[in-house]
Design brief:
Elements lengths: L1 E3 L4 E4 L3 E4 L3 E6 L2 E6 L6 E7 L12 H7 L3 H15 L6 E12 L2 E11 L5 E11 L2 E10 L5 H13 L1 E2 L1
Antiparallel strand pairs: 1-2, 2-3, 3-11, 4-5, 5-6, 6-10, 7-8, 8-9, 9-10
């Protein structure tokens, strides 16, 4: 259940809060999509989360999750698996340009950035931070057209990501 407050904040019931001022929020079956209403260019963020991890899962919190992918090669392989699973079956090129450790919402996370070329030579950038919270994998993915992110949009995107707090 999403609850909107007067101060333009969103709370995902018992899961996270975020300052959504300047963003339009839409619920999906797997999370929320934030579309920047104050940006001159198209910028969107998706916060998605999976089902609770089972007892046999090798990680159940953010520290265990990040430690499970302890080399750049493992991080890149994980990012590639996630991206290819979300792509159409053909007519795209995928280039993972960076992987590393990071933080999101006060938790340790894995970060990757990728450039995706779809038909018509349109390049998009995806930067994703992935963590574990309440025994669920959580993804914070920012998407925008490559070389089209204005300074104002970058500031709004950073403000949104910095405002995320897991409950």
């Amino acid at each position: 259940m999403l609850i909107s407050s007067v101060c333009h904040g969103y709370t995902k019931n018992n899961f996270y809060t975020i300052d959504s001022n300047g963003w339009v929020v839409k619920s999906t079956p797997v999370g929320e999509v934030f579309v920047c209403s104050d940006c001159s260019d198209l910028v969107q963020v998706q916060i998605s989360y999976g089902n609770e991890a089972g007892n046999n899962t090798p990680f159940h919190n953010d520290k265990q999750f990040v430690e499970a992918f302890d080399t750049p090669e493992k991080k890149k392989q994980f990012a590639n698996m996630l991206l290819e699973g979300a792509m159409p079956s053909e007519n795209y090129d995928l280039d993972i340009i960076a992987v590393g450790d990071d933080h999101i919402g006060g938790l340790k996370a894995i970060r990757y950035s990728a450039i995706i070329k779809m038909s018509r030579d349109m390049l998009t950038r995806e930067t994703t931070l992935i963590t574990m919270h309440k025994n669920r994998i959580v993804k914070f993915s920012a998407n925008f057209y490559e070389n089209k992110l204005s300074g104002k949009s970058a500031i709004l995107l950073e403000k949104l990501s910095n405002s995320l707090k897991f409950l």
